[in-house]
Amino acid sequence: MLLFLPDLFIAQTTPPAKELVKIQEVRPLPGKLDQIPTFNSNSPEKVLKPGILLSTFPPQGKKMPAAHLNFPFQGRFDVFAHHVAQASSGKDLRTLYLGILLHNPDQKTVKINVLQGASYLSQPDAPFIQLPSFSQNILGRVFAGPGDRVMNDILRGRRRNIFPAQIIIPPRQSRMLLNAPIPVKDLTPPLNGRSTFARLHSNGKVYAASLAMFAPTNDDDKERAPILKEWLNLLDNSEIAGPRDKAPTPPNATNGGIIYGRVAGVAQGSQWRALITDNNKVKYLTIPQPGKAYSYPLSTVPGGTLGTQQIQSAKMLVRYPDTAYSAHGNYGIQYNLQLPLYNKSKVSQRVTVSIQTPVKEDRLSQRGLRFFSTPVPQVFFRGTIRLRYKNDRGQRQTRYVHLVQRRGEPGKPLATLNIPASDRRLVEVDFLYPPDATPPQVLTVSTPLDE
Question: By C-alpha distance, which of 38, 49, 434, 36 is closest to 211?
Fold first, then answer.
């Protein structure tokens, strides 16, 4: 079983046959990312050589100064880490530990509140099982893969017990945010992954580092968790973990396919908030004419803007030079989208709201979005969507829907509303873009023809 999608950040070129084109207008997504920094540790994805995954510590006094990006956090910030362990041989089944370290460089005690947080293994916490394309997820028990499960928890505002409610760091000291194993023993193949996400608030300056270490052993050769002193020694004296992922294509390159690369650095942005209206002079979104649809791209990347020329990838404030130039895919970023739907017509209209995964294009080769009439093997999105709206009886609804969408999948409606003439209905769509998803998707508002 594949734990994570193989290098999904290489541009696709040859689509399979049996395409269908949906004639629907594609509009840029309003709004923008906020400025909250995100510690984004995703390179190398597969860790075979322990060491520093990402450090924002100052470089002074470190064995490998280039591994330390000298970026302090203060106030609100997010921490995201997504890594895989694989046994290098059938006999070497040591447990890889992932450590996330926070350091207070000043002379006053720092308090860090953990607002939300979750961390899961692929095995046994969240295996990649086959799921329907559309599932109600009221209790949050529908997921496939650790990234899917983590983002589902954060969407619901949860803080799992693996994280304390508060971390207090005395002056000039360090504390662990996470010290967690990625075991491979007794797995076939010996391959496992861990996804982690936390929203934090610090009342003072802190530096952060994610580190990888094989489990130390006791005198009886039994593995144990590393202690803080061992993590600090690794931080000071280790090199960058390996093997390194494929180097990204420079932003201005014009030849060949795009290699987006994996992310190791601090990205700018935690949420994308959008009030989707006809234009910035009105506070409503006129529903499409019967038989028409509007689509708004989600998580667009260079070479995949679906004709909008809008790139939503979070910019990197600091990064390692062999990693992604932007946080392509926006893993862990929450999309908070409000659609104040308005039926200007003189008759009631049936309106649907959907998320779809069209064939990736930069400029649209057809007059609409390309989909496939039959499913293809590649799963491009696994995640939970939250919808809030008033139903046709005026009752406030909050629904959680889990989607599994393959490349080129049109998708089913998340909500269907019957909006009376001259009436308005607010629909809110929320989700965190999950690891192991492949952008872009679109949010589509449609007014189907009466059957």
Answer: 49
Least confident of 225-229, 246-250, 252-256, 271-275: 252-256
Buried b (16+ CB within 10 A) or exposed e, 406-443: bbbbbbebbbebebeeeeebebebbbbbbbbbbbbbbb
Which one, of 429, 419, 400, 446, lies nearest residue 338 by Cα?
A: 429
SS3 call for 411? coil
Residue type, 290: P
**Among 441, 33, 78, residue whose Cα is nearest residue 273:** 33
| Helix (H) or strand (E) segment spanning residue 64 | none
Token pair of 89, please? 């041989």
CA distance 217 to 77: 34
pLDDT in tens, 340-367: 999 999 999 999 999 999 999 999 999 8
Q: Is 124 left (phi over 0), alpha (psi -120 to 50) or beta?
A: alpha
The Cα 314–Cα 297 span in angstroms is: 15
Each residue of 178-218: pLDDT tens digit? 999 999 999 999 999 999 999 999 999 999 999 999 999 99
Longest dimension (CA), the chain: 81
Strands 285-286 and 46-47, how do they pair?
A: unpaired
| pTM for this predicted structure | 0.94
The partner residues of 419 in beta bridges, in order of sequence, read: 349
Return phi, psi of residue 438, to 5°.
-120, 115
Locate the DSSP E strands across 42-169: 46-47, 51-55, 73-86, 96-103, 110-121, 134-136, 166-169
- Give the position of tokens 């075991």: 183
In whole angstroms, how large is the CA radius of gyration of the chain? 23
